Amino acid sequence: MFANYSKLLLQDFERKRESNQVPLGLVHLSLAQLRRDCLNVCSKRYERKKDEAVLESFFGVGYDKTAVLDAIDGCSIDKFRPLVYFLQGRTNNPSKNIIELLAWLIDFEKRPFELGKMYEEPDTTPHSEKNNTLPPEEFDDKNRVQETKAITSGEYELRERVKKEEEIDEYGRTVKVGSNENQETPVSALLSFGTAKNAPAIIPTNQPNIKKQVHFKALLWPSALVVVLVITFFLYRKDSCMYWAGDHFERISCDQPTNGVLIIPENSERIRNFKRITKPDTLTKKDINRVFYVKLDGELEYFTEGGFHPVYLTRSLKPLSEYIYNTHIIPLKSRAANIAGAYDSLSASHKDTTKKTVLLQ
After folding, report:
1. Is the peptide bond before 112 cis (omega within 30 degrees of 0)?
2. Where are the beta strands (DSSP E) in 123-230?
3. How many Cβ atoms from other residues are within 10 Å of residue 266's Cβ?
4. Residue (of 87, 21, 91, 97) closest to 60 by Cα position
5. Backbone angles phi, psi at 302, to 5 degrees
């Protein structure tokens, strides 16, 4: 039964990958990105009852969300190599924990695998054959089978309704039943506009230039939009850049000299919300998984939002974990408290000495 479970999982993975519903690491097969994806998935949808077993099997802990995040953050990216090899087709028989990790990452509905539970054989009928079926009514009318192969069920209902009111004359034109008016309104025109109400009253069949005019109008608007966007870009590009000012982003003209300072396209949200935290000793436990950090040259830098470092653009920012809080923030708090205590003692001693001097005088 585990074979059927694996096939159903892979079928769901392919479907979600085609619709861009899987994490980036499963698309680009990047080891570092897979670790970031695991941190993101655990932060957003940690389900102990459903995923504790697979998380404990793969990361060594699964009973607590914070502990799992710390384990993911501290694990080597090589741990994800078997999953990458499996998705690349280099291995055909991955271990059970690799299969379950994939199920967790894509939020597979039938996870986890349960021994003794029946998993149906996945449907291997090609998707194109499933969608190439005809309405049941068409099998009773041999004269219209070929006609309905190219239309959807919604168009089929519309065409049937139109055919009840119209018939085709000897010149291929549609004519109202019971009427002497040769109103040239092809059914294809009705289908193009959606309803007979919106269709043009007269579309002569002997005018081949109509189709060319429609195509020209259809291309005119997108072309005009592209021109407007290009002109707008060149008109306003001078105010569309920003640079990192040490602890925040500043707007700058794209043409302004910066003496080697990195200039990037402006991002209003980034300018407004992305800041460096210059006093990390003020952070509290409430900031765990809410602020982000990166380690550069042995020192930690803290930021209000995630993403990538504003200067070292290849270095990603990680969520603040409880482990980092306990090993780095707590010592900073203690050091700040000791300095404040020493300053208070020095101030008190200075005041006492000043008081004695005044009394002696």
Report:
1. yes
2. 166-168, 174-176
3. 18
4. 97
5. -120, 145
pLDDT of res. 355: 57
Q: How many helices and strands in the chain, by DSSP H and E? A: 15, 10
Q: What residue ranges in 240-311 does DSSP mark as E strands?
A: 241-244, 249-252, 264-265, 276-277, 292-296, 299-303, 307-308
Tell me, what amino acid is at 83?
A: L
Q: 3-state DSSP: the chain helix, strand, coil percent, rounded to 5?
A: 55, 10, 35
Q: What is the pLDDT of residues 147-196, one digit of tens each?
A: 444 444 455 554 555 455 555 554 455 555 554 444 444 444 444 444 44
Helix or strand run (H / E) with residue 128: helix 127-130
Q: Whole-angstrom Cα distance, residue 350 to residue 170?
A: 114
**DSSP helix/strand/coil, 182:** coil
Please list, residue by residue across 107-121, b when 16 or more beta carbons sit within 10 angstroms of its beta carbon and e when fewer do: bbeebbbeeeeebee
Measured in residues, the chain has a length of: 361
Q: At residue 242, what are phi and psi to the nearest 5 degrees?
A: -150, 160
Q: Which two tokens stand for residue 315?
A: 């270095």
Residue 317 DSSP SS3 = strand
Residue 217 confidence (pLDDT): 59
DSSP state letter for 197: G
53-76: burial string, b at 16+ Cβ within 10 Å, e else:
bbbebbbebbeebbbbbbbbbeee
- Cβ density class 197-221: b for 16+ within 10 Å, e for less: eebeeebeeeeeeeeeeeeeeeeee
Distance, CA of 163 to CA of 146 (rounded, Å): 16
pLDDT, tens digit (0-9, with 9 covering 90-100), for 59-99: 888 888 888 898 899 899 988 999 999 888 888 788 888 99
Q: Which residue has the tokens 């910066």?
A: 258
Q: How far apart are the first and last CA of the chain?
A: 97
Q: For residues 165 and 156, what is the distance between their CA atoms, to the nearest angstrom?
A: 15
Task: List, in order, residues 6 or more apart from 174 with CB less than 8 Å away.
Answer: 166, 167, 168, 183, 184, 185, 186, 187
Please give the Cα distance from 170 to 191 (Å, whole number): 22
**The amino acid at 107:** D
